[in-house]
Write a structure and sequence with these properties.
Radius of gyration: 25 Å
Number of strands: 0
Helix content: over 70%
Structural class: mainly alpha
CATH topology of one domain: Helix Hairpins
Shape: globular
Number of helices: 13
CATH class of one domain: Mainly Alpha
CATH superfamily of one domain: MazG-like
Largest sheet: none
């Protein structure tokens, strides 16, 4: 048995084992055809999906699943690092070192000479100051530079608004955001064609993201919770109809609405 085989089959091999498995999967002569043909762009959607599955396990407090989901996400990092290593760009050790350097630099109150005796709010301001300096070194001089285009749209909207708020471009209170929300809803109602409706709907979502920010609500988390609630209540409708031998498509809206209200009342009693 080769050293590679011993590592691949070592149940306690840890991260080196995973890195070796990925290297073997990408071997152009003996690897997996699917893994070999992938590139950064084709793997990226899986990386995003795995991150959401981690968040989903946490939302559901499915701690027995979380280890596996974190492993899936870790595998995505190893996959990208292997493809980078094949191009001579960097490897997984460089990834770890880069992250370590960043964390040490961003936490001078832990790893340096600064005092830890400051509030979480002050630490957040210090963090942003350090990040701003990092962006300046990358020649990212605009206030909005560096907010990743690939972020989910709601999350990116909040990050853009937070950046703008740091330089004073923000409504002073929730009241002004609510007024803007009503204005955008009116503009959506009055939109004369599909192109205008598309634009006004985007504006409405952007203001909703701003409202979430002012209310200190994570809009992605709130929408995930709303999706979960809708799923629970619609399953109640399906189960109730199935109990009498019916299917939603064979039922009236009034009948399903009544079951929806029943599901809502049942949740409130729990």
């Amino acid at each position: 048995m080769t050293e590679s085989d011993r590592l691949v089959h070592d149940p306690g091999g840890g991260l080196p084992r995973l890195v070796e498995i990925m290297r073997r999967l990408r071997d152009p002569e003996t690897g997996c055809p699917w893994d070999i043909e992938q590139d950064f762009a084709s793997v990226a959607p899986y990386t995003i999906e795995e991150a959401y599955e981690v968040a989903d396990a946490i939302d559901r407090q499915a701690w027995d699943e979380l280890k596996g989901e974190l492993g899936d996400l870790l595998f995505q990092s190893v996959f990208h690092a292997q493809m980078a290593a094949e191009r001579g760009l960097f490897d997984i050790a460089d990834v770890a070192d880069t992250m370590s350097d960043k964390m040490v630099a961003r936490h001078p109150h832990v790893f340096g000479e600064e005092s830890r005796d400051k509030s979480p709010e002050q630490q957040t301001r210090d963090w942003e100051t350090i990040k701003a300096a990092e962006r300046a070194r990358k020649a990212e001089t605009g206030v909005l530079d560096g907010v990743a285009l690939g972020l989910p749209a709601l999350l990116r909207a909040v990050k853009l608004q937070n950046r703008a708020a740091r330089v004073g471009f923000d409504w002073p209170s929730t009241d002004e955001v609510m007024d803007k929300l009503r204005e955008e809803m009116d503009e959506l109602r009055q939109a004369p064609d599909a192109d205008e409706r598309f634009e006004e709907f985007g504006d409405l979502l952007f203001v909703m993201a701003n409202l979430a920010r002012h209310l200190k609500i994570d809009p992605e988390a709130a929408l995930r919770a709303a999706n979960a609630k809708f799923t629970r209540r619609f399953r109640y409708i399906e189960d109730a109809l199935d109990a009498v031998g019916k299917h939603p498509k064979d039922s009236s809206l009034a009948e399903m609405d009544a079951l929806w209200d029943a599901a809502k009342a049942l949740e409130k009693r729990r």
